[in-house]
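User: I need a structural model of Phage head-tail adaptor from Alkalithermobacter thermoalcaliphilus JW-YL-7 = DSM 7308 for a docking pre-check later this week. Nothing fancy, just the predicted structure tokens so I can convert them on my end. Input:
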Amino acid sequence: MFSQMNKRIKIMKFKGIPDGAGGYFDDWKIEEGWEEVATVWAAIEPLRGREFFQAQQAQAEVTHKVTIRYRKDVDKSQIIKYADRRLDIDYIINIDEENKYLEIFCTERI
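Assistant: Understood. Predicted structure tokens for Phage head-tail adaptor:
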């Protein structure tokens, strides 16, 4: 699995630029209102079968598992941008608490 970290992703955080009408810019596709935290290599796996069922126990709509090398600056308030897809972070697991890899369970926003 870890050898298949062949997808380039961006981890993004919302920075809240006012749009002049009382709201904020929030266009993640062109990164308007978002700031890049990091660009990293990742393995992206859609959840299916038993994995999907188990993930549903914790989060109602978890659709993907993203595995990256450990980073301490990743949190649930951020999103993952992969090509023209947005993955909202639902929860993060530090595998075996070894600070080597993170499994990030996400919901794809359409």
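Before docking, keep this in mind: The two ends are 26 Å apart (CA to CA).
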